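MODEL INPUT / OUTPUT PAIR
PAIR INDEX: 1
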Amino acid sequence: MAPTVVVSLMLMLGACGRGPSAKVATTQWLIEGLSADVQRFRQERGVLPRGLWSPGGKDPSCLERTEATLDTWAGPIVYTVIGGSRFELMSLGADGVRGGEGEDADIVFEFE
């Protein structure tokens, strides 16, 4: 299946509210897209961005976004530089609180 078809299907499932797995899958997809933006920033500038966005998009040390990126539960996706070239992107799940199970579980990806 072509990547655009898979992405479209994931977005449709998330929008139709087909249960926790659709929202989790859509949030994972959003995080993977953000990681590509962070890695592109690092490749172009030689450093990781200081943040995912800045008001007005004016801070050159952040990604060129003017709004926070939200997960499928309308919570912010948290960006943390772990050290060196490693970073983490995390959604706090449906409840917006660390930890949890099922739909409330954190979705965490670590990248190098």
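PAIR INDEX: 2
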Amino acid sequence: MKTFKEKILGLFSRKYNEDSASELRAILEECLHYTDLSEDSVWSCMDVSEIRFSLKKAIGRLENRKKVRLRSLSFLFLPTGPLQEVSISNGWAEEFLELAAKFDAVVLKLK
């Protein structure tokens, strides 16, 4: 059985996956681009500025080779989640579905 110290050291020694992080950053940047062109949706629980803040924060962490909170990001990409509702209201629903599929694939690599 691992000691507490071994568990903590194991958390910090996990290898940073540069390729997956780069893929994730590209997906988030594309979402950021679409949200630049979007207005708030009455159906979304977050307004566009909140979504953009979350995306920018995650992109910044990835650029600095830090881990991102995948749960928080996954919330944005949920079916009928904030990004999908904004995408439907602003005419980029098909593009969102493609981005969400890519996001899901990358997240599986990062777990």
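PAIR 2 NOTE: Helices lie at 4-12, 18-36, 48-63, 70-77, 82-90, 93-110.
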